[in-house]
Design goal:
Layout lengths: L3 H8 L14 H29 L6 H17 L2 H9 L8 H34 L10 H19 L2 H4 L2 E4 L2 E4 L8 H34 L17 H24 L1 H19 L6 H19 L1 H35 L2 H15 L1
Antiparallel strand pairs: 1-2
Helix pairs in contact: 2-3, 2-4, 2-11, 2-12, 3-5, 3-6, 3-12, 5-6, 5-8, 8-9, 8-10, 9-12, 10-11, 12-13
């Protein structure tokens, strides 16, 4: 999506040195990668949406967050055909400037909406694993809906400036749709981008890392999930299975988070910083370094888009199917408890504890 590197130098006034380079590889990389994301992501997210809306009888807090995450991803995926056409036509935007603003807005809204909803899911799972009983009164589907409204409000408010910064410009016979902003507004955009990255990426990323670190430590404790039924040897198998699944889920989420979001933000920050230095004093930055940073930034943009494919995979692997399997196991455990010692209340408590810790 990065069109700024190709045009910003030639459009900047007052420069004693020009640094211009071609990025023809993106006219193949971006259409192909976005086509794959569109086809795979659309199928996975529509399937996830169908399961959530028509196959989920009772919405739990994690279901609410996953629904909003799926909506966020679907809105972005539906914009990809326009970007595919744009880059396949080598940066010639055939649509209006307001539509360019909308497309860029939806990209960043999806990006940071996904990060915040993954942060919400991580916090919810953290409470379920580390505070399984006390969190019963803390979390609910109603509160999850209120949190989701707050997340959407935060995303829309923080990304509203994108509608101002994003714009088009005619260059010869082509019309460019800037994914950042026009060169004369780049300094203001740089400050805005830095603030948004700190608030909507760096801080949520630290929260996710802390939550999963504490969850891993809790899950590795020998007594986790055993509760009062451990002494009778009942109700231990399901927590052991859920522990293994939870650890795998944590690893996959962290890997996906670091592959999709971290490289994009690092390379984008580096490219913006070098571009700023080049505009202030062209002698400080070589064209080769600027070109390398732009190429790295370009490669990570499809990775950021790929989170739209990763999110529903995580839902199906660690969510719906896993909870269904645990529910079946918990029913068997409850029946066994009733037969052995006639303690239906403890059976219900064991089932609820396991479900809460693995939602």
């Amino acid at each position: 999506m990065a069109t700024f590197a190709n045009h910003s130098t030639n459009e900047s006034s007052g420069q004693n040195r020009r640094c211009s380079f071609k990025e023809d590889f993106k006219y193949i990389l971006l259409p192909v990668s976005y086509t794959l994301v569109f086809v795979i992501g659309l199928a996975l997210n529509f399937t996830a949406m169908y399961v959530i809306l028509f196959r989920t009888k009772r919405w739990k807090p994690s279901t609410v967050y996953m629904f909003n995450l799926t909506v966020c991803d679907t809105l972005y995926i539906l914009t990809l055909p326009f970007l595919i056409y744009y880059y396949a036509d080598e940066n010639d935007w055939p649509f209006s400037e307001p539509f360019c603003k909308l497309i860029r807005f939806l990209f960043y809204a999806n990006l940071y909406g996904s990060i915040l909803f993954l942060c919400c899911i991580s916090l919810h799972r953290f409470l379920g694993v580390c505070y399984p009983m006390r969190s019963l009164s803390w979390v609910s589907a109603r509160r999850a809906r209120l949190v989701s409204v707050a997340v959407w409000a935060c995303v829309l408010m923080c990304q509203a400036p994108v509608l101002y910064f994003s714009r088009t410009r005619d260059e010869g016979t082509e019309r460019v749709c800037f994914d950042t902003t026009s060169p004369e507004l780049f300094h203001d955009f740089l400050v805005y981008s830095l603030v948004v990255s700190m608030l909507l990426f760096a801080f949520p990323f630290m929260v996710v890392m802390v939550c999963y670190g504490l969850m891993v430590r809790k899950l590795l404790e020998p007594a986790w999930g055993a509760g009062g039924s451990q002494s009778r040897g009942v109700g231990v198998i399901a927590p052991h299975r859920s522990k293994q699944k939870s650890v795998k889920m944590i690893i996959i989420v962290l890997v996906a988070f670091m592959l999709c979001f971290l490289p994009f933000h690092l390379t984008r920050s580096l490219f913006y910083f070098l571009r700023y230095l080049e505009q202030m004093d062209p002698s400080q930055v070589s064209c080769e370094l600027l070109k390398a940073s732009s190429m790295a930034y370009m490669v990570t943009r499809p990775l950021a888009s790929a989170n739209s494919c990763v999110d529903p995979i995580l839902y199906f692997m660690a969510g719906q199917g896993f909870r269904s399997n645990l529910a079946n196991k918990n029913q068997s455990i409850a029946k066994e408890i009733r037969k052995r010692d006639g303690r239906p209340f403890e059976a219900g408590l064991t089932v609820r504890r396991v479900n809460r810790c693995t939602e």
